[in-house]
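During the second half of the funding period, the structural biology subgroup turned its attention to how the target accommodates small molecules. The most pressing case was 2'-deoxyguanosine-5'-triphosphate, which had performed well in the primary screen but for which no bound structure existed. We therefore specified the complex as follows and requested a full 3D prediction, including the ligand pose.
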Amino acid sequence: MPATKPKNVKTRSGWIAVVTALMRRQGKVLVGKRPEGASLAGRWEFPGGKIELGESPEQALARELREELGVEAEIGPLKFAATHTYGKTGILFLFYEVKYWKGQIKTQQHMDLKWVAPKELRELELPEANAKFLTQIMDVL
Ligand code: DGT
């Protein structure tokens, strides 16, 4: 047993991995309004959520899109990764391209869903993290 804890243990235990989908249709991208009662309620986000134990990022995103939108999605390539910290919690964001899905997108958890032109993203109330790396997100759209 080491006499002292490795220095990075505390930092790493406060990190979570979140997968999000960049879904395009006719030049627009899908965003959802986070539900009441959730953290960041009312903010517009890209569909997705936390990776659960035992899941790959792609499995987690496919599950989230099933739960949130009611579709069976084919997860494309990783387009962008970034980190942001909310207080003591660090979030690693993985943004995937999602071009293909089966089924009709329907609101299951969000207050609302809408397709917006990439430049309209700038006018939406986004979570702080997304606002911070919006330029990079727009570059990969
Ligand atoms: P749960 O089951 O309530 O823990 O929630 P999950 O696993 O559906 O995950 P969610 O969406 O509540 O958590 C993702 C975290 O990332 C949350 O702190 C909000 C933050 N976040 C920032 N920007 C985004 C975004 O564009 N999409 C998503 N899904 N989360 C974002």
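Two results from this model are relevant to the next phase. Residues 28 and 117 are 5 Å apart (CA to CA). The chain has a mean pLDDT of 92.
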